[in-house]
Amino acid sequence: MQRAEPQSFERVLSSMCTEPHPTARKAAERFLATNPGDPGTYETVADLEREAVERLGTIAGLGDPAGYVTSGGTEANVQAIRIARNRGDTDDPNVVAPEHAHFSFTKAAELLGVELRTAPATDYRADMDAMTHLADDDTVAVVGVAGTTEYGYVDPIPAVADLADAVGALCHVDAAWGGFYLPFTDHDWHFGHADVDTLTIDPHKVGQAAVPAGGLLARSPDLLDELAIDTPYLESRSQVTLTGTRSGAGVASAVAAMDALWRDGYRETYERAMGNAEWLAEQLDVRGHDVIGPELPLVAADLSIPMTTELRDRGWRVSKTGSGEMRVVCMPHVTRSMLRSFVADLDWY
Amino acid sequence: MQRAEPQSFERVLSSMCTEPHPTARKAAERFLATNPGDPGTYETVADLEREAVERLGTIAGLGDPAGYVTSGGTEANVQAIRIARNRGDTDDPNVVAPEHAHFSFTKAAELLGVELRTAPATDYRADMDAMTHLADDDTVAVVGVAGTTEYGYVDPIPAVADLADAVGALCHVDAAWGGFYLPFTDHDWHFGHADVDTLTIDPHKVGQAAVPAGGLLARSPDLLDELAIDTPYLESRSQVTLTGTRSGAGVASAVAAMDALWRDGYRETYERAMGNAEWLAEQLDVRGHDVIGPELPLVAADLSIPMTTELRDRGWRVSKTGSGEMRVVCMPHVTRSMLRSFVADLDWY
């Protein structure tokens, strides 16, 4: 493997993954050969998974949480929709979500045979009138996003939960990326703020655990029962995950990262990232670009030059929103000096 | 994380996971912070994934294979059934499989809204008369298992493929566990032996890669197109995986393991494991137990004592089949001296 070098994060501005915290990396390496999908055989990592869920519950305002460590936000979102579909009393289930919901909801709908109804947004947040218009008796879940993938904005979660309640659907919040930044903001986003049923929050994004460590939380264990499949020839009885064999590395590193960083470490990470995002927004603004955000540490800007190729040649990894804006995700590995170099390179063109 | 110790493999006889090869472990550690789900950003690991699929194709008799590195056998099996469902021209799709098919097919059926029809087996292998009886115009896939989870037996794959062909369905082979042992046997199991459309083969089992590294292979890329979901705001265009963010560690370690072990290393592993399984079968047989196998390195025996608790207390991890037989999986980490100790402990009771 000497021939291939892993991606360095030195110029990565496009990813919602980041360099794991050193303690998290160490834990991942130690637990590389364990399988939390077989808790009868791999007991230690099964215990660690319970700790991971406990800590995620603390962050997301839920005492005594149900849930598990998923392969990532996609699995958590798919499973939330699967719970809602299986719980719903309809042959023609639909899910109502804002148009900026992550593409994993499209995947979930295709997989699960559920209709996905997406409502236009207003000012990059879910438009509750449009959402309400789409919801009906066959709606099994209403989705809100706390930290959108494209712009980092936060939907009005209490209103999303109210709509879910009004139509007898489950309320799912996707805080896959935002969940480790939001505790240090004034946003209402979690189980303690609204009648949320399920929530996605990924340790392997801002939580600084190693991939794969996503998180699905549920208000009560009976919600997870909707996912149970019998498991003969394992020592355990049933399995709720989407995958079977799973990485103990992700689970162990999630616990290690949260032990090391919750709460002050994550607060410092948030403040630094938000400071960087505000600095970048200001730099782009003074150069005459239309800037969107930052509401959380993510900046999008309508750069009119077709610059991604040139920037890639200089090593930068940036991506674009569906509408074509340049998008910079201020992850923990993104420093002020990276952003200074980036802005200097933008000026050069 | 000092307080928790990962499971040692010293007494694990129940798992289809194993200690990764040292080179595979090193590669996993180096690529811990990469995401093959975002190939535009993480180019090196995307290249490695193409190499992994190429090597898996070589092992499974398929030049120029389509496929990808999954989170494990469950994802690969789910995706194969999803391909078949999406390709099938019916509103009421069913899948025909032998009763010993892995529980991931139950999960797939529940997820995807497909009816799973399971046929009784004869002598632990798919009974083709029973399978044929269940197949009809709405059958979208016929499944064969090459190395069953419970007994390690191999279904008659050419006959399974013929049945699939006869009813216009896809043929899927689950060689998740068996795939790295079968090349050194006389069994017909792969793309070169029969008209197989999709096949599951997991580097993180007998392939000795780190979890998560499963494998889905498809005879042609258009089969994978059935899984494609658009991915705005990634630099790539679409995504076929079930999960989104994925572990670069699994991909890199799969390539490293196959580089190190294909072909002679895997042959030695097979011969040692099969020798161990035959030795264990003989030991149990002379003690008067009814032994099933080994057809591949897996031994099941009808031990009449309720012994799992006592064995667990002595550190052994064994599991039972659905019919209650004790089941020992001879993975690469299982040595003759482990089995000697195990048999001695059985004698003690």
UniProtKB/TrEMBL annotation, chains A, B:
Modified-residue entries (N6-(pyridoxal phosphate)lysine), positions: K205
InterPro entries: GrpII_AminoAcid_Decarb, MfnA, PyrdxlP-dep_de-COase, PyrdxlP-dep_Trfase, PyrdxlP-dep_Trfase_major, PyrdxlP-dep_Trfase_small
One Gene Ontology term from the biological process aspect of the record: coenzyme A biosynthetic process
Reactions catalysed according to its record: L-aspartate + H(+) = beta-alanine + CO2
Gene3D superfamilies in the record: Aspartate Aminotransferase, domain 1, Type I PLP-dependent aspartate aminotransferase-like (Major domain)
Keywords: Decarboxylase, Lyase, Pyridoxal phosphate
Assigned EC number: 4.1.1.11
Pfam families: Pyridoxal_deC (PF00282)
The protein's annotated pathway: Cofactor biosynthesis; coenzyme A biosynthesis
An example molecular function term from Gene Ontology annotations: pyridoxal phosphate binding
Source organism superkingdom: Archaea
Cofactor: pyridoxal 5'-phosphate
Membership in a protein family: Belongs to the group II decarboxylase family. MfnA subfamily. Belongs to the group II decarboxylase family. Sphingosine-1-phosphate lyase subfamily.
Role played: Catalyzes the decarboxylation of L-aspartate to produce beta-alanine.
Protein name: Probable L-aspartate decarboxylase
Record organism: Halomicrobium mukohataei (strain ATCC 700874 / DSM 12286 / JCM 9738 / NCIMB 13541) (Haloarcula mukohataei)
